[in-house]
Design a protein that fits this description.
The protein has 113 residues and is mainly α. The protein folds into two domains: 34 residues, no CATH class; 59 residues.
Length: 113
Amino acid sequence: MFGTKRELMVIALRDTDAVAEELREALATADERDRPGLERAAALLARAAAVPDSEIRGRWALRRITAAGHTGPADSVHAVKALRQAEPGLSLASAVRLSKEAAALQAAGASHA
């Protein structure tokens, strides 16, 4: 046990399968008035379920980095430091990985602007 550091693990949690099943059941008995809204909800859920875990982690990290006051690149040394100060349980390796995932989102946002 000596020499090991307890680390906060960041895991993307989803419960989309259960919600999708509820929507399917509701659609099976929906009247014509409710059907369009339920179909739209099912489409939104499918889109959310298709988001990769790395993007979910990147969003989380980017929110934490931004909340800590960092405004530059999400994969900079300052961003990693801000993330580790915001989440003291993160190891350096995890903070670097998360900051890279956050930076990928920043880059994607810049390319779509």
